[in-house]
Design a protein that fits this description.
- It contains 23 helices and 21 strands.
- By secondary structure, it is of the alpha/beta class.
- It has four domains: 66 residues, Orthogonal Bundle (DNA polymerase, domain 1), CATH 1.10.150; 97 residues, Nucleic acid-binding proteins (OB fold (Dihydrolipoamide Acetyltransferase, E2P), Beta Barrel), CATH 2.40.50; 186 residues, P-loop containing nucleotide triphosphate hydrolases (Rossmann fold); 157 residues, P-loop containing nucleotide triphosphate hydrolases (Rossmann fold), CATH 3.40.50.
- The strands form four sheets. Strands 11-12-10-13-14-9-15 form a seven-stranded parallel beta sheet, sandwiched between helices.
- Helix 7 packs across helix 23 and helix 14 runs parallel beside helix 22.
- The chain is globular and about 95 Å long.
- 41% of the residues are buried.
- It binds adenosine-5'-diphosphate and magnesium ion.
- Magnesium ion binds next to helix 10.
């Protein structure tokens, strides 16, 4: 079959020991590696112009004769300019080269060549700058679309281009890796066509067709692998719900649901009506009201005789959900329990017992929920809040607490849809794209230390108006002890010197849960006015009376994280402010923080964040662990991504063990090289 792909790169004409070593630096050791070493871009060298037709600054190919001798002028030490006059049947143009004595040996007066370079028009003179050339009729690199590859030191374009031209004939012999049914259904090119045209395309259209085929295959392999990893079983049965009268619950709320909230609740109900368990991700910007949507889903589970559970990443948040759910469900006689790591053993056991015998209808908690002791009587739905704080495994563990329960995951760090499709390959996506009425844009300012007094005075003024403020300091894990100390000193200074007559409190992750709860409670109730905190308040915390969010060393945070922090204010009817202190004069930092000033749209921010930091840093290694891609761009190949996802579902549904999938299976194994797969 495709064994020739394993041939050593040294078997390629022109590739000796030395070049092979260079190739191995870019991961190319075999013929197959080289065929699959896709160019970064294609350079268009097909723009042929007559000399009379050229424009200033245009990059062109000109078919012309060397009309003059080549003259050389030493302009100054170290700079020799070579010029020649070129002529075609429409006119003449000067060709200019700098320090390129090869011109003199190689170009022959009176001979016709193709020249390729940028044209300029200066001081009434037309020139073509440092053109490269080939003899007419023998041109390999001019007059065509040419691949531009990622290089490494000492390995130049031409070497790669030449070697690729040598191996391209193999493409004709290749057995296609994609079953013909899929190719037909998605209108994909043959592999041989794709490989030839991704490197040396016949025309731009062919390149695009080739690229689409290869992107599709790469994404299909990735998605299939992820789906297999997640062990999605498409044929399993979910809990059976028959009662969907959620209006009793929604009518009892103190506000009217937004259109987006209603739509998403309906999407959830439609899922409940199906045979298979729901798997749904709710994305919605901070403050859009995801909690009440989760509550509606829990309500439906309970009126159908099932239990529900919701996991939150911090005790503060779990506690907050617990308090608000207790109130929401009180009229319906639905019992809510809270399980957090800080409970005494006795209290924990009590919760375990009540969960097991069904006395607790809805169990809220932190990671403690996925501990061994937790068993449900009949879990109907498992919800993960702020899922970006959890790993895939933790989510899976929560889900395994029931027998194929419905699954809902919620996130306020919206990730671009294209990526969501990949990372949550097994989930459907709902988006809450509307904020409750009356919310005002949070005004955001990036300032340096010279504004410190003004900012403090501003906080004092807001507090006089009855509002509250957060001041957040970064805490970097490597240096926790030291930093904690400096944060504490900062707090002391604020307390003694800046806000001596104002209730100010301090919160960090290492505190005992009871202590945290107390501090948070005081802040929620308005007893303390300023809360100095590490990022433990980053997610979920809901204090509508707070109107100022100050972030110290803002440059240390990712944009999405800053957006989360900013989302702690502007949750009520009061005008709110976010002030980002940054000392870094660094230009890219400044540009990054500027984005925060310009937009409040979490989707735009996460897209930008992702663009700036790349998927690896954006998600944190632990969370995504996605393999790197050769050709697909997760941000721009959205359409193909959707098609590949659809195809992956279909393949898994119909059985992936067939022979025709041999090559796809092989690629999955390669891509996820440390995972074991069974197909
Ligand atoms: P998030 O989506 O960030 O989790 P929350 O669910 O915490 O947001 O909701 C933020 C605030 O908005 C809460 O105080 C909540 O009670 C309120 N809220 C939610 N939905 C609405 C609505 N439709 N109208 C008015 N206020 C709402
Ligand atoms: Mg929330």
């Amino acid at each position: 079959m495709n064994d020739f792909l394993d041939l050593d790169i040294k078997s390629v004409k022109g590739v000796g020991e030395k070049t092979a070593k260079l190739f191995s630096k870019i991961g190319v050791n075999t013929v197959g590696d080289l065929l699959y070493y896709f160019p970064r871009r294609i350079e268009d060298r097909t723009n042929f112009k007559k000399i009379k037709e050229v424009f200033d600054r245009e990059t062109v190919c000109i078919k012309a004769t060397v009309f003059s001798d080549i003259s050389s002028n030493i302009v100054r030490k170290g700079l020799i300019i070579h010029t020649a006059i070129l002529k075609d049947d429409t006119g003449i143009i000067n060709a200019v080269w700098y320090n390129n004595s090869y011109v003199k040996i190689s170009l022959k007066k009176g001979k016709e060549y193709i020249f390729y370079g940028q044209v300029t028009h200066k001081f009434n003179k037309w020139e073509i700058q440092s053109p490269i050339w080939e003899e007419v009729g023998k041109n390999l690199y001019l007059g065509r679309l040419l691949p531009v590859y990622q290089l490494t030191k000492s390995l130049n374009q031409k070497t790669i281009q030449k070697a690729v031209l040598e191996v391209l004939p193999y493409a004709d012999k290749i057995t296609d890796t994609m079953p013909s049914e899929i190719k037909a259904k998605y209108n994909l090119a043959q592999l041989s066509f794709a490989l030839k045209n991704i490197h040396f395309p016949k025309d731009i259209k062919s390149y695009e067709i080739a690229r689409r085929r290869l992107v599709f295959e790469e994404l299909l392999v990735l998605i299939l692998g992820l789906m297999l990893l997640k062990g999605r079983k498409l044929k399993e049965k979910g809990p059976k719900f028959t009662n969907f009268s959620v209006s009793h619950f929604t009518n009892s709320l103190s506000f009217k649901l937004t259109g987006a909230q209603e739509r998403v609740i309906n999407e959830i109900i439609e899922d409940f009506k199906k045979d298979v368990p729901m798997g749904r991700l709710i994305q919605g910007d901070v403050g859009c009201g995801k909690t009440v949507v989760a509550a509606a889903a829990l309500y439906i589970a309970v009126i159908n005789g099932y239990q529900g559970t919701m996991m939150a990443p911090t005790e503060i948040l779990a506690n907050q959900h617990y308090e608000s759910f207790k109130k929401l469900f009180e009229p319906f006689n639905i019992s809510v329990g809270l399980l957090s790591g800080s409970l005494t053993k006795k209290a924990k056991n009590e919760i375990y017992e009540k969960t097991k015998n069904g006395e607790i209808d809805i169990l809220i908690g932190t990671h403690a929920l996925i501990e061994e002791g937790v068993t449900f009587k009949n879990l109907g739905i498992a919800i993960t809040d702020e899922q970006h704080r959890f790993g895939v495994l933790q989510r899976a563990k929560l889900n395994s607490k029931g027998e194929n329960p419905h699954i809902l995951v919620m996130t306020a760090t919206p990730i671009p849809r294209s990526l969501a499709l990949i990372i949550y390959g097994d989930l459907d996506i709902s988006i809450i794209d509307e904020l409750p009425p009356g919310r005002q844009k949070v005004s955001t300012y990036v300032v340096d230390d010279s504004y410190r007094n003004r900012v403090y005075n501003f906080i004092k003024k807001e507090i006089e108006q009855g509002r509250q403020a957060y001041i957040v300091c970064p805490l970097v894990e490597e240096n926790e002890e030291l930093e904690l100390k400096s944060v504490l000193e900062f707090f002391k200074d604020l307390k003694e010197n800046v806000f001596p007559n104002i209730e100010i409190s301090y919160l960090h992750g290492k505190m005992k849960a009871a202590q945290k709860d107390k501090i948070m409670k005081d802040f929620v109730e308005g007893k303390s006015k300023v809360l100095v905190s590490t990022t433990v308040i980053e997610v979920g915390v809901n204090v509508p009376n707070a109107t100022v969010m100050v972030v110290e060393n803002a440059e240390r945070f990712g944009l999405s994280q800053l957006h989360q922090l900013r989302g702690r204010v502007g949750r009520g009817k009061y005008k709110s402010y976010c002030i980002l202190f940054s000392e870094s004069g660094n230009k890219t930092t400044q540009e990054r923080l500027d984005i925060m000033q310009k937009t409040n749209d979490g989707f735009k921010i996460s897209e930008k964040d992702l663009e700036l930091r790349g998927p690896g840093e954006f998600f944190g290694q632990k969370q995504h662990g996605l393999p790197s891609l050769k050709i697909a761009n997760l941000l721009s190949d959205l359409k193909t991504l959707k098609e590949a996802k659809e195809a992956a579902f279909q393949i898994l549904k119909e059985g992936f063990s067939k022979n025709e999938y041999f090559y796809l299976q092989k690629q999955i194994k390669n891509l996820f090289d440390n995972e074991s797969f069974s197909f």
